[in-house]
Amino acid sequence: MSSASAQSRAELAVADSSPFRPLTLPTPNSVRTASGRPGARYWQQEADYKIAATLDPLHNQVSGTETIHYQNNSPDALPYLWLFLEQNLCAPSSVTNTLNQPPLKFLDSEFDFSCQGFKGGLTLDYVRIGGANAAHTIYGTTMRIDLARPLAPGAAVDIAAKWSFKVPEQGGGRMGHDGPLYEIAQWYPRMAVYDDVHGWNHEPYIGAGEFYLEYGNFDVTLTVPFSYIVRATGELQNPTTVLTPTEIRRLALARASDTTVHIITSRELTDFAATRPVTAGELTWHFTAHNSRDFAWAAGPDFLWDASGWDNILIETLYRRTADKWPEANRMGRETIKYFSEQWYHYPWSHATTIEGPIQGMEYPMLTFVPNSPTREDQQWALAHEFGHEWFPMLVGSNERLYPWMDEGFNTFIDLHNAARYFKGTAYGDSIESHPLHLYAEHGVPGNEQPLIENPTEVRDLFWSGYQKPALMMQTLRFEVLGQQRFDDAFRAYIKAWAFKHPTPADFFRIMRDESGMNLDWFWREWVYTTARLDQSVDSVTNSRDGARVYLASRGTMIMPVELSLTFADHSTTTVKLPIETWNLGDVFVYRVPEDKAVVAAEVDPRHVLPDIDRSNNAWRARY
């Protein structure tokens, strides 16, 4: 072959630049199938915890012992194990304290994912396996345990530990205390996830990224001063020891009530003889939880306590007298649990409890931390958003340390219509669902906007890429690409298939394609992997004996279906919906109008529901 011929062939070689080209995804297998579902050989590890802890408010300390029963369900022999010691977030030498990172801005709120200079950290007294000290190395918020012999497939190991820590006023924005009120989370050594995708998922906890955890069972005892009420993940096993007969009776009534029942009233708030079974010393509360990925708790001596029920689920709200928005909180919580259960997947646990306190908003299985908010609308949003996390990621256990859009984003998406329903008929309720679209111009700025797929610890605008943009993505897919019923059926199938399991982005993409019957690789590439921008235009219109022609263009880097509004010379109008295949042959398309009428006006996206960056070219009008 001559060099000229080789050069000619090289010039003819063109990379596939079609917006419809396939996404590069992991090869499906018997663990994760091509349909986006767990396969016949799907596996995940199990970590069961038995914990005994004591809260000492005088010294502001939590101390405890625990045994982790770790079951290796993988096909791999494991020579070492990785655990998280997340209280080391607040150690003096931690990455977070060293960097002293500025707070992240979420509209008018700031979230400080640091320890604000608090010199804390976990004191680990021992780590033992089989009664002998285990060889271990601590790297900040992670710990590696080297085993005497590899843990074989199907085998289990018991890890014993003793530890303590001082409770910060704010631990990475997610736990801490306000005077005698304690909201305790990320508080015990716990297993990192070992999965078929990454092996050990031991990305360090430095604040912005949240948690990816194994499912298992919990048996937890918490010893606190007698005056403290404790609410926690799981079921209370000894109510007659820690509650009064009146409280037990009221809780039973509340579970069957669709209106609020006061478990501890304002008049009873400081009457320990009426609200506590003893009036001195300590009480030990015993909780168990099944198939849960985490355990958190809250304790305080001055809680007002409200409860109601829906479908035998106890909805609880506990708050201080100063929380002026909280008398309505129980109804807000009940409506949220009911709506998400009826719309997406039935709430799988026996209670949904939220605690008012200093933490700006955080979620754990069956338990959330929510502050008193400045307005009624803010209060409903914060409370419902944290309860929405019971679905993502407490139920559908995605890796939020890497993919917050599958956690915060999906949750924000389901929150929008819930808020619209709750405040229907008000200016807020009738506009909240369009909120993410209105934020696009401010946050979707070229050069600053980052793809959703980026690690949250590297994202400059987490409010946008973790929360609002993925919510906009899901709304757009639901209403403008698939249609509501088609989307809803597919999204429900995703939740059902991956309940109590660990989905990846590829699993989500595949099951949405499989269930909806539409190849969406083009959509995910634009919204998740790039910062593509939409610019649809009506370039011109011609009217002739052969009929009218509308010349459309996709001038940006994002493609979307086209909604085209036409006005005719006889003043009649029509709206045409053109599918995504409009752009199969490139970024221009000529629409042949079937009506034998002259077109005098044409507009794309007439409802203004797409994030079009230049609306000046969206409409055309005939000039006379």
Q: Helix fraction?
A: 10-25%
What low-confidence regions span 5 or more consecutive residues with pLDDT below 50? none
Beta-strand percentage range: 25-35%
For the record, the CATH class of the domain at 43-214 is: Mainly Beta
Distance between the termini: 62 Å
At CATH level 2, the architecture of the domain at 43-214 is Sandwich
**Biggest sheet features:** 8 strands, mixed
Main structural class = alpha+beta
Rounded average pLDDT: 95
Task: Enter the CATH topology name of the domain at 43-214.
Answer: Immunoglobulin-like
Major sheet: order of its strands?
A: 7-6-10-2-1-16-20-18
Treating each run of at least 4 consecutive H or I residues as one helix, how many helices? 14
Rg, rounded, reads: 28 Å
Tags for this entry?
alpha+beta, single chain, 23% helix, 14 helices, eight-stranded mixed beta sheet, six-stranded mixed beta sheet, Immunoglobulin-like, Neutral Protease, domain 2, 624 residues, globular, 31% strand
Topology record:
Layout: H1 3-12, E1 46-56, E2 61-71, E3 78-84, H2 95-99, E4 104-106, E5 109-111, E6 122-129, E7 132-133, E8 135-139, E9 142-151, E10 156-166, E11 176-178, E12 181-184, E13 190-191, E14 193-195, E15 199-201, E16 216-225, E17 229-232, E18 235-236, H3 239-242, H4 245-255, E19 261-264, H5 272-275, E20 282-292, E21 297-300, E22 304-310, E23 313-319, H6 329-343, E24 351-356, E25 362-364, E26 367-370, H7 376-388, H8 408-422, H9 435-438, H10 440-443, H11 462-482, H12 484-497, H13 505-516, H14 521-529, E27 536-544, E28 547-554, E29 562-568, E30 573-578, E31 588-592, E32 599-604, E33 619-621
Parallel strand pairs: 1-16, 23-24, 24-26
Antiparallel strand pairs: 1-2, 2-10, 3-9, 3-13, 4-5, 6-7, 6-10, 8-9, 11-12, 12-21, 14-15, 16-20, 17-21, 18-20, 19-22, 22-23, 25-26, 27-28, 28-31, 29-30, 29-32, 32-33
Helix pairs in contact: 6-7, 7-8, 8-11, 11-12, 12-13
